[in-house]
Amino acid sequence: MTTPSDLSVANDPAGGAPPPPLAAAPASLRQTRKEATRNRVIQAARELFDTQGYQGTTIREIARHADVSVGSVFTTFASKGEILSQVMQDRLDGLYAELDRVMPHLRGSTLDRLRTMFAIHFAFEVQHTRLFLAHIASAYDWTLPPSAKPMGRTPRLQEIMRECLEKGVAEGDVCPDVDHQEVVHLLVAAYAWIYRLAAWEDADAATMTAAMDRQIGLIAQGFTPRA
């Protein structure tokens, strides 16, 4: 009569215990190829948005520049706006990390800190002004899916400004009853509008910073406590 132990031995010529389960396989070839396609699409889109603008770039051109099929692009991203969001996230993560490091140590009034924050932004973005203009333009694309993060929907920028205003309340140079989010909206609007100088006049970072300084000064009159 054959017993379970006999079957075990029969299945294992060495007569020992069954072999241990195989270790988990490394990332599949399919996943590796998908990641490679994603990176190529992002790189191609970054170059095209920076040279042709957001509206002037099509998904077909991105696919051709990345040397992938249009279907592969849509398998990876839901829309052109989502591609731009990823391009900008990759760029802005470094900028926000630098602001997180610098902002807590800035001296001066809330007005001074806001001016310094935007000066850092202009100095960073002027390296690829057209790409940032594409980021702004995408904010007015009503066909964007919720997953896209155009200019204005980047939460970290707004958080940094709110933190600056909250610190100002604690220090006494920002009215405690002012709607911080309303101030943030005004600052973002001014920031985006300043970029018309880059689009129309090829303005440099110093020129745009000076214009933003004046705008922040006007906005600050609305949140500074009255004597």
Radius of gyration in whole Å, from Cα? Answer: 26 Å
N-to-C SSE series? HHHHHHHHHHH
Distance between the termini: 102 Å
User: What structural class do you assign from the helix and strand content?
Assistant: mainly alpha
Known CATH architecture of the largest domain: Orthogonal Bundle
> Using DSSP, what is the number of strands?
0
- How many discrete domains? 2
What's the CATH first level of the largest domain?
Mainly Alpha
How confident is the prediction overall: mean pLDDT? Answer: 86
Q: What is the helix tally? A: 11
Q: What is the helical fraction, as a range of percent?
A: 55-70%
Q: By CATH's scheme, which homologous superfamily of the largest domain applies? A: Tetracycline Repressor, domain 2
- Largest sheet geometry: none
The best one-word shape is elongated
Weakly predicted, low-confidence segments: 4-15
Q: Could you name the CATH topology of the largest domain?
A: Tetracycline Repressor, domain 2
Strand content: under 5%
